[in-house]
Amino acid sequence: MDKNIEISLLYDFYGQLLSLKQQQAVSLYYNDDLSLSETAEVMGITRQGVRDLVKRSEAELYEYEQKLGLYKRFEQVGEYAANIRRLSDILCESSDPVIVKTAQEISALADKLYSEEA
Q1: Distance between CA 84 and CA 100 in Å, rounded?
Q2: Residues 17 and 57 in one domain
Q3: Residue 19 pLDDT
Q4: Cys-Cys crosslink for 85: which of 33, 95, 110, 112, Cβ 3.0 to 4.6 Å?
Q5: pTM here?
Q6: Rounded mean pLDDT of 82-107?
Q7: Structural domain of residue 14, as residue ranges?
Q8: What are the start-end ranges of the H helices in the chain?
């Protein structure tokens, strides 16, 4: 996965655990796609200060994920929901109306779970 996307996703999960200054630097640099110089100008600090903030923030985000694993779990839930949906689609091809109705209910629940996760 592209590092920028990975950091943005980790920021979505753990950003509130960073200091306000770290949050601002990461958001501007990764989410708003500003350069280090542009971020420094917005924040009123040096380019090196932004770089240090961003690097420290990245390390903290990776550490939070290593310890808590929320992003990994989120990905797993999405995969499970997709598999449930795929299997229930197979069951919908049954000639038994009870199985079809149950499979449709399962599909609806998987869709709901997946859409809440996404």
Answers
A1: 14
A2: yes
A3: 97
A4: 110
A5: 0.78
A6: 91
A7: 3-68
A8: 3-14, 20-26, 36-43, 47-68, 70-91, 97-117
